[in-house]
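User: hey, got a sec? need Aminopyrimidine aminohydrolase folded
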Amino acid sequence: MPTFTEEAWTRNEALFQKTLAMPFNRELADGTLSAERFRHYMIQDAHYLVAFGRALAVAAARADDADTMVQLAEAAQEAVVAERELHGGFMQQFGVTPKQFAAVPLSPSAEHYTSFLLATAWGAPWPVAMAALLPCFWIYAEVGRDAVGRSVPGNPWQAWVDTYADEHFHGLVTRMRATIDRIAAASTPAVRDQMHAAYTQAARLEWMFWDAAYRLEQWPV
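Assistant: Yep! Here you go:
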């Protein structure tokens, strides 16, 4: 019998393939993504990671045992500190000052995603909140793994590719999957259905986030 995460991946395989095929991710891998689009993405992603770290911290506070609490707290630190170091290097490359960064609002798609994660972290059953957090880890890892195989010499976005293809990041994903599978196995069928719905919604929002960056999405009014 498949685990929860195996089943979630199978249910959303078509969506993942659409994510891999997106112009943003194809061009990121082959080095042709424009600097304007990558800059838009990087600023939005840096804002997003603050909210993602908060959602992880809330999930840590709600954890059902001490080991899981530590795991999630460390993941929150990874999101807010380690991954922001990657963003910081690109911010310097693009000449984006802290003041300029702070002045850029979340795009509509980014605000939708962060609001969903925070509302789910605070208000949904804890297993559902955990399922909503998984796509950000897992889909990034698999996009990174795909991109590193297609990246070209001199790719200006190689640091991004290397970060998410790295075995350390994939280890975080493996641990998160194991935790969620443990939680799901102890949950009722009704809660597992909610977990699947939350996972799928977050996976859709991952697609929307990259699509928004490619379109240089702004608020229309």
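Quick note: The chain has one domain: 4-214. Let me know if you need anything else on Aminopyrimidine aminohydrolase.
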